Records
---
Amino acid sequence: MSSIPAGVPTREIYWNVPFHDLLYVFLVPTLAIAAWGVYRRVRLWRAGQPILRFDRLGERLDLFVKDVLAQGRVVRSSYAAFFHTGLVIGFLVLFAATTVVAIQADLKIPIMQGPFYLFFQSLTVDLFGLYVLVGCAMAGYRRWKTKPAKLVYTDEATRLVLLIGVISLTGFLCEGWRIAVTDDPWGGWSPVGFVFAAASDSMMSDSLMKTLHTGTWWFHMALSFGFVAWAPYTKMLHVLTSPLNIFTANLDGYGASLKPLDFEKAERLGVNALTDFTWKDLLDLDACTECGRCTAVCPANTVGKTLSPRDIILDLRELMHNNAPALLTTLGANGAGTKGADSSAPAGAIDAAATLPPVIREGTPLDPEALFSCTTCAACMEACPVHIEQLPKIIDARRYLVMEEAEFPEGMMNAITSLESRQHPFPGTQFNRTDWAEGLGLDVLGDMEDPTEAEVVFWVGCGGALVERNRSTVRATAKLLKRAGVKFAILGREESCTGDPARRIGNEFLYEMLAKGNVETLNKYGTKQIVTSCPHCFNSFKNEYPQFGGDYQVHHHSQYLQELVEDGRLLNGKDDVEKKLDRKVVYHDPCYLGRHNGEYKAPRALLDGALNTKREEVARSGRDSFCCGGGGGMMYIDEKPDQRVNQERASQLLESGADTVAVGCPFCATMLEDGVNARKGDREVSVMDIAELLLEAAGDDEASAPVAE
Amino acid sequence: MKILVCIKQILDPDMPARDFKVNAETKEAERGGANLVTNIFCENALETALQIKEKTSGKVTALSYGTDDTEDSLRKALAMTVDEAALILREGDSNPDAEAVAKVLAAAITKLGEFDLILMGRESGDWGVGQTGGLLAEELGLPSLAFVDSIEANDGTLTMRRQTDSGTETATVTGPALALITNNEFNVPRIPKTRDVMMSYRKPLEKFSLADIGLSAEDVSGSSFYEVTDLSIPTKDVQCEFVEGDSIDEKIGVLASKIQPVVAANS
Ligand code: SF4
Ligand code: SF4
């Protein structure tokens, strides 16, 4: 300390702590134990299949700043936001402070002095230490008092909260006694310590405080070291795995979260062993913080089904750890840890993988019944603070059940069988692909002399053309396009299902065949732009078809119509709707337009331009929207009467007091119409597509009348 | 046990009714935009054969008389795990009658080898004639049983249960024999596993011309023992009328007076 002139603010490091160098003796085993704890997880992840997740570093850093440092997703829950952010920043600040001490004490660089000492090392550290303490109290309060159902209650979590609390408390005690005994002239810069100092000063003698200080200091250090060593063996591991998981997250949106399958090489179609997952899938498991947000927002779980995305992750995590030896053998046996990726993998690896238990097991969170109740809405992924990808894992397991076992619910089987022989998932439909267009005089690409005259292809979709309810939607869309003078054409009988239902149900093979067929047809006509009123088709074109050589500019009808309105080609310009609607409208975001593809604005803008009234919003909307219940092949399944997602959603929408539920998806329209009819009581409420509403606003009487037979 | 299953590809019976058109000239259904599918009873027969194979062992062969399109139906049979398939390419008559088809199938079966059991669907979903099986048994000189809904194979004996108007009958036969399969809850055709769909493209599917099996187009045309004289889609006339009236009693009265003549005319 001699180098610091008197009067410059600082403090003596290791005051009143004899033998403090012993710390370094303890530090080595502590770090070794912690490092082992981390390493034993890392090597398990390596047993997964390869996937590229260290590319696009700039984008990854952005995400890291947003969702790790700024806790972008954690803060969506305001209670957790307050205490978790406190804990994270508190930890970071305290870590910085410890580093400062080390620089000063060991590198002998005198930085812990002057204003920096006062503002950072004293005041900031003290306040954040307090924040940590408060954070622990809040976490404890939630765990022991309010007890939300989404949390997992373990002794481990309890001990962790207590441990961190006691560490900060003992830190303050030591600081207080030091300030009191040394009469620290800058003690006031450490307000919390100062309060402890003042309290102790009046109660005990200096020598008592010195004795207590030494004892408590060592206790504090022992706990801190114990915490560091123990943390990687607990859910605290997420301090490392969560940031890593966010850094290696899928950057392309939920609509592009399913992996393609290499049918030539894949030894198993889909996943039924841990080694069939990618390393990132396995990392996901260790990154889970058990916060339960995913399950809390899951529509299937909400209506009482057994599906729970959190429990799927936790179950797989347990499976991974209980089978660590077998997993490590697969790794040793083929070096790269990529069983299945390479058909020349040594037999040893395959044998070792065969000793792994199946992932899909009845009575567990990965029970086929649970797996086949997922609507693929992606609410779980949107809610997860650490970007865990629950949905692709569910689809991986479905792929196995559908393609390797052919075991899946009957309703989905019927849809798949129909897709195979008729290229649409609606067996028994009484319509063909062009019935809906009767009398509209639309161009059909195959009949046109020069198909390139069509600037846009209107992709109708099976849900539009073949389902009674939605024929008026596609008709309205076509009429609006005509009104605006858009040069468009349809494919008519040449249109096939995009394959979305097949892919979501788990039949990747059938999906690929359908996708390739459609790309061939569209490319044959030189297609550049596509408009579709089905968000599922939209998602396929946007995120999935490029892989098969189908590169199109694709618009959801709400986007395209809104552009037409803005360009003054529809409704005589934005502010001049011919007949503004007096309906009280609430808009329901379709999962595949909203969450999967980030389009929340266009449909709302379009509605606002057509309404006289103020549009209603419900709590679960936009990013947090609640599925209609029809995605992921659930449309083809008869749900138990008391477990219907569509009715739950209908109730939420009805609460807004609206008389019209506006939708932008044929699946939503059918599901919600049924749901609303079941729940509306004697209210008059209609479910209408945006296009139907817009046509009504434009004064076309056909809009709300059924399509003429 | 060696089992052969004859299957037929037909126009999708599930096509929208309004898409179904017939050609009054040729007296045939028009394909239009409809898909082709395997006749459902033929799929029941395939399922029955596969279950016997799985319980005993042996081999299942699928055979069809059709066009190149029919390859799809045979591929699907292979995907259901049939071992091999043969397609006789149709020549001449595009809608051959049951006798002609039986002749072709008999020649094909003789060419393909010996079988312990031959299964067919009880009738096809398009014409529903239901005669081909019996005629084929005749051609081959085999005993046959129709409306069979389950078969147990035991040490070379086949126990077949057939549905009758008043219940079921059971027959035992030591084969070779021919059975016409009808549906029951146990022979619902399986959904092929994708793995098997992929494998189906590697399984043998042989195509033969009529000449290959020792027949000519003349042999299988014009031999009709029946003639289709007319083909049309029955039309349904629907009239809708709302009953008027001030009170419910009055409406009931009006309704009754409207119904009475119709009931009287039909009784
Ligand atoms: S995608 Fe939706 S339905 Fe499926 S698990 Fe996630 S939240 Fe639940
Ligand atoms: S998967 Fe994500 S949202 Fe679900 S419990 Fe784990 S951390 Fe929370």
---
Amino acid sequence: MSNWLSVQNLSVDFMVGGGLAPAVLRALRSVSIDIEKGTVFGIVGESGCGKSTLARVLSGLTAPTDGQVLLDGKPLGMDRDKAQRRRIQMVFQDPGSSLNPAMSVCRMLSQLLSFHQIVPRDQIEARCRALMAQVNMPVDALDKKPGSLSGGQRQRIAIARALALEPEILIADEPTAALDVSVQASVLNLLSDLIRDLGMTMIFISHDMAVVRRVCDRMAVMYLGQIVETGPTGAVFEDPRHPYTNALMAAVPRLVPRAAGDYQMLKSEQPSPLARIEGCTFRGRCPKAGPVCATLAPVLDGGAHRVSCHFPRAGTNPVTEGSSHGH
Amino acid sequence: MTRILEIADLRVDLSRAERRVSPVGPVDLWLDAGECLGIVGESGSGKSLTLKAILDLLPDGLTRGTGTQKIAQGGRLVPTDPRSLRGAKISMISQEPAAALDPLMRIGDLIGEIVRHHSGCSWAEARLRAVDLLRRVGVPDPETRARFWPHELSGGLKQRVVISMALACQSDMLLCDEPTTALDVTIQAQIVDLLRDLQVNDGLGLIFVTHDLALIRQIADRICIMYAGLIVETGPSSEIFSNPQHPYTRALLAALPDIEQSEGRLVPIEGTPPAPTAFPQGCRFGPRCPRASDVCRQTAPALLATEDAQDVKVACHHTGDVT
Ligand SMILES: Nc1ncnc2c1ncn2[C@@H]1O[C@H](COP(=O)(O)OP(=O)(O)OP(=O)(O)O)[C@@H](O)[C@H]1O
Ligand SMILES: Nc1ncnc2c1ncn2[C@@H]1O[C@H](COP(=O)(O)OP(=O)(O)OP(=O)(O)O)[C@@H](O)[C@H]1O
Ligand SMILES: [Mg+2]
Ligand SMILES: [Mg+2]
């Protein structure tokens, strides 16, 4: 059961611009991921590289242009029945706009709990209270509408809503971005308990590298719609191979500042997902790019820890041995 | 340094309550030209309401209490109506970027409109400047992006559009409410550099709210730690981080995940912060504080300068106790 949830060659194109100059924006370019049941898969990457788009395809909210998603060997399409919808829940990146402003928290949760028949009618109120406690919110928040909550409080309500349905798969798009470190710690502890005790599977999208390192078993680094490096979280952090992964690690602000010269900021601009790029999409910003990078797109290659680069940083562990070079 | 903002006794009250309920305040704040003040605090501690109150942009159901707000004008600090400051003197980057974008306008027009409003230039000129602003905040292919609708943008792109809208005002002060939460660390570094550049070269004053303690340490000159609507500790950023005094500040630093570590459970602060309607008597952090004693339960501690560092102020009865 190594690939319980499997994403195969997924591509998403958007038609944008409209009117006089329509253009194709390639948000995802043939992305493949295999996720084991009961594990956490982390996704990091540059803003705009397609993380939320991937999450939306998995949740059945965006139709892929190509490729498919398999759950337990069976294709998971766009039209899902009530039971399937319940199995996969998503915490949206923007908690404010994913909550109905006219409904109190209590009404929203009760409706969900009764619609999906999670608990008997007479236990709904108790369950709502329990959910509030789980996400570290005072019970009196139940009577409030989203507009009179703070940003981090709204985010916790969004998490409570997703957890109310006891999903098997939780897709969490920046679920702790608006939380302070203390509340973040308790929410992360809650999520790891659910994974350990109930075998929940989680896809965890985040810009916070320290959190990704804590929470995720495996991870992928995305750049411009593609996965450029993937592997066990420890391996990717301790032995980053792709130059983009290296730049990402180096840019993390730290409480104890590092030695000068350690900070390598990416020089030129982020490329546009509208452009067609020959060869490697990262080469314009890559300190190591050579002639081959301009003509031949690298493929994701290696064993458990894979990287898509013609000149990956030499490894300190022999993880990718076996298939050292592509075709 | 020239002082550009001075606020005394800032308070936010619930409009419809039988007794006075104040989610924020009273709080004193000031800002010098070219300075960055960081505000840190638990979720729900009143950071966003504080920023909104400065511009009197509070949502329905909340009103700004009395207190004075002075703004530098012609070299002097004069009392000023908060509403008259919006955009002109102070602009704001709000916490949820999506809500700040009109879904029915292309982003180039959104920014262009602001540019035109503040400079009175032509539409053609405003469009060019909008594209230039998008480029400065690191949006790739800005000419094409200017024609996008808000719903066609990723979370981080929306956030960068909101930042360029705030920069389009060319105000003296910028209130930033979690302006980089949706950005990856490389783009965050780029935005921070841009803000620092404006700080140093144009004397832009920044008030910066964030949960990212490492980031705040990097950019803030001074820090206010907020808890349950009040400032509990304030001082130079270096002091607060190297020698935190208030038990809440210490607990906050202890809960921070460290990128060098992958093991072990994180340590949240026990308990939940009180709701504004149920702020406890005495010290508001008391019920969660490991050092709370009888005096903490009876009297609220005042924000006072500490003995060893004059520019650090702490609101705790036990400051200076041996730990
Ligand atoms: N509905 C849409 N129509 C057109 N373009 C879209 C749409 N949704 C997303 N895009 C574009 O697809 C690309 C990927 O967006 P996505 O939201 O997946 O990025 P992301 O990795 O989640 O970024 P962030 O970290 O900023 O949230 C972006 O260039 C975005 O502008
Ligand atoms: N419109 C409102 N009416 C009543 N109470 C409100 C309203 N908006 C916010 N509050 C309450 O005021 C307190 C402070 O809210 P604020 O949004 O300032 O918090 P914050 O410090 O910005 O938190 P976060 O880090 O989660 O964004 C919270 O307890 C919140 O529930
Ligand atoms: Mg996103
Ligand atoms: Mg806030």
